TrEMBL record:
Its cofactor is Zn(2+). Keywords: Cytoplasm, Hydrolase, Metal-binding, Metalloprotease, Protease, Zinc. Signal peptide: none annotated. A peptide binds at residues 151-153, 283-288, 445-447. This is Leukotriene A4 hydrolase.
């Protein structure tokens, strides 16, 4: 799953309010004012690959005589700005390599500390907005409808919404999203109804509310041919119909996991905990958005062995964090380091079996049996294969014997299959090459796709085949994935 130490740090400091600091990755006036609420009115245009609409920001001054508000933007076309419904002057500053472009708004009056105004910005995103990924029908499981998803972490929300794009500021939000009637919209918020778009009968407006204050990088939107299944009293799983029933089975224990998390960390404050399984081309493992965790379809192992990674929801409350003296926690000497003593029983079994295979001679192979892996859990089998990958490639006879006994080609667990196929290709087993390329192209998770392509590419006899398969499937890949695999395989982007 995605994560950011810096985002977590700024989030914690923003919650407690004890330490005042600016964000070096943001232009916004985060030390002089704070956004309390966003109201989003969005129109998703699949033909032009843009979102157009308005955002209304409720902004509170943190100092007296506050008169100029600066928001973060990146590649946004700003149409107009008003403050309390009064048109005002605005100017876009110079473009920065990673921070984007500051939007400077001159208020028609000075604010005193604690006063609030509503700033409305009408705008349109760019087709190349860094937060928005537009998938063609070929990149989806159904192959019939286009698909949109956002990825705002760590500082990409500014390319989707003009805002104070820093995790030190948290706000609630409300959204109305107009999409084609054949598609469904979901967001990192609680669903709040839907209606036919009064301005276009061929579109539906979906409404969402997020009453828990959160940083801008957790705003998320997905639009596609989605279906859902109930998997608990506060959970649904969302996906294209090709995955939705498999996902419902895989994540059917979500409520049990949520209750366990609450026993450890306190009540789950977000209300709804839904899981969205994205199309196969989704290049990441997932994203822990409030109310809607993004998940890769490679988690659908068929035996729930990978479902535990879904429950990474944030359960800490403001009251809990406010009890910590963060100045003391950050700046006073800590306790002496303690090296914990872990139980290595499960790992020991993996290490022992891997060492047997690594040390085995040809005449020793008949000493292995299928019973050796029957007692191993899926996670132990993953560790066993990982240990083998850290060493020199096994002789081809060893890998063939392993398949004969363990039948790893039949595994539907993506983590196991990925490591097994890499092991086979490294040992120059030609029969494994088409299996490796099939896995590399039938899903697009970079964790799997890039290493598999690299392994085949490094198998000299099949280097050209790796390039040929990549070029043939590139159009169905996510742009991030295809760009990086192309670099791995030294394929020119114009080819």
């Amino acid at each position: 799953m995605s994560g950011s130490v810096s985002s977590c740090l700024f989030s914690v400091l923003g919650l407690c309010g004890r330490i005042k600091m600016s964000d070096p990755c943001s232009f916004s006036s985060s030390t002089t004012c704070v956004t309390k609420h966003l109201n989003l009115l969005l129109h998703v245009d699949f033909d032009r690959h843009v979102i157009r609409g308005k955002v209304q920001l409720t902004v509170e001054a943190l100092e007296d005589r506050f008169s100029v508000l600066t928001l973060d933007t990146r590649d946004l076309d700003i149409k107009s700005v008003s403050v309390n419904q009064q048109p005002v002057r605005f100017a876009l500053g110079s473009k920065h390599s990673f921070k984007g472009t500051p939007l400077n708004i001159t208020l028609p009056f000075d604010l005193s500390r604690g006063q609030q105004v509503i700033v409305e910005v009408a705008y349109e995103t760019s087709p190349s907005a860094s937060a928005l990924q537009w998938l063609t029908p070929e990149q989806t499981a159904g192959k019939k409808q286009s698909y949109l998803f956002s990825q705002c972490q760590a500082h990409h929300c500014r390319s989707m919404v003009p805002c104070q794009d820093t995790p030190s500021i948290k706000h609630t939000y409300y959204a109305q999203v107009s999409v084609p009637k054949d598609l469904v919209a979901v967001m990192s918020a609680v669903r709040d109804g839907q209606e036919v778009d009064p301005q276009d009968g061929g579109r539906i407006i979906y409404r969402f509310r997020q009453p828990v204050a959160m940083p801008s990088y957790l705003i998320a939107i997905v639009v596609g041919a989605l279906e859902s299944r109930e998997i608990g009293p506060r959970s649904r799983v969302w996906s294209e119909k090709e995955f939705v029933d498999k996902a419902a089975f895989e994540f059917s224990e979500t409520e049990t996991m949520l209750k366990t998390a609450e026993d450890l960390a306190g009540p789950y404050v977000w209300g709804q905990y839904d899981i969205l399984v994205l199309p196969p081309s989704f290049p990441y493992g997932g994203m822990e958005n409030p109310c809607l965790t993004f998940a890769t379809p490679t988690l659908l192992a068929g035996d729930r062995s990978l479902s535990g990674v879904s429950v990474c929801a944030v359960v800490l409350q403001v009251d809990v964090l406010n009890k910590v003296d963060w100045n003391a926690w950050m700046f006073t000497p800590g306790m002496p380091p303690v090296k914990p003593q872990y139980d290595t029983t499960l790992a020991d079994a993996c290490i022992a079996l891997s060492q047997r295979w690594l040390k085995a001679k040809q005449q020793d192979l008949n000493g292995f049996s299928e019973s050796e892996v029957k007692t191993l859990s899926s996670h132990q089998l993953i560790e066993f294969l990982s240990l083998l990958l850290q060493e020199e490639p096994l002789p081809l006879t060893h890998v063939k014997k392993m398949q004969e006994l363990y039948n790893l080609n039949a595994s539907t667990n993506a983590e196991i299959r990925f490591r097994w196929l890499r092991l086979c290709v490294r040992s120059k087993w030609e029969e494994a090459v088409p299996l490796a390329l099939k896995m590399a192209t039938e899903q697009g998770r970079m964790k799997f796709t890039r290493p598999l392509f690299r392994e085949v590419f490094n198998f000299d006899k099949y280097r050209d085949e790796a390039v040929r398969v990549f070029v043939a499937h590139r159009a169905a890949m996510h742009p991030v994935t295809s760009g990086l695999v192309g670099k791995d395989l030294k394929v020119d982007a114009s080819r």
